[in-house]
Amino acid sequence: QVQLVESGGGSVQSGGSLTLSCVASGYSVSEGYMAWFRQAPGKEREGVAAIDRNGYPTYTCAVKDRFTISKDNVKNTLYLEMNSLKPEDTAMYYCAAGTVVFTYWGKGTQVTVS
Hints:
Layout: E1 3-7, E2 10-12, E3 18-25, E4 33-39, E5 46-51, E6 57-59, E7 67-72, E8 77-82, E9 91-98, E10 104-105, E11 109-113
Parallel strand pairs: 2-11
Antiparallel strand pairs: 1-3, 3-8, 4-5, 4-9, 5-6, 7-8, 9-10, 9-11
């Protein structure tokens, strides 16, 4: 059974930083794609960043140069380092994993920027 458990969310002031973690069990982060999505109240879920099995990252334009996605294959954990946070980054952040499509999802961690 695959489980993805996010942590690290919280409330910060504009310009602050947070690092999200996603611990995977039953799934190897080294095998397929992993990503962070977010959903703000009243808005559709959007992709934030993704990383392939070789560690190559991609970012949505809104977070490029502010966020960094990475993974630790030994700890089987995905990270999202978020810097220069803005109020528009406020959302529930979700970890997702899969090989062709994102089959597995975590329950999310809330990030609030004021």
